[in-house]
Amino acid sequence: MSSDGVERLLAEVCGTLARAGFEVASAADGGPGLRVRREMDSVMVGWVPGSELDPAGRENADFEGIRAALRSALLAILTQAGHAVQVDRRSGEVRVSRPA
Prior knowledge:
Elements: H1 3-19, E1 33-38, E2 43-48, H2 64-80, E3 84-87, E4 94-97
Antiparallel strand pairs: 1-2, 2-4, 3-4
């Protein structure tokens, strides 16, 4: 996929998530929230939890239940919007690409 194609896909994914009620955080600000970033031929969607979810500030808090629910929602929303999606096993993020 060309660089322009990935940019269009990024805009589409961000628009789809916004219409579904998600607020996409800027990766540059380092804050919590849903993150969308470009890869070479796809877009990756991940989540960074806010400190409010763990007031005790545990370093080992993993929020796997929340991550699993969010992944399921992202897979359903983005698939319904016509994108090809899969979970990246290494990172746990959702990889979004154009259908084949």
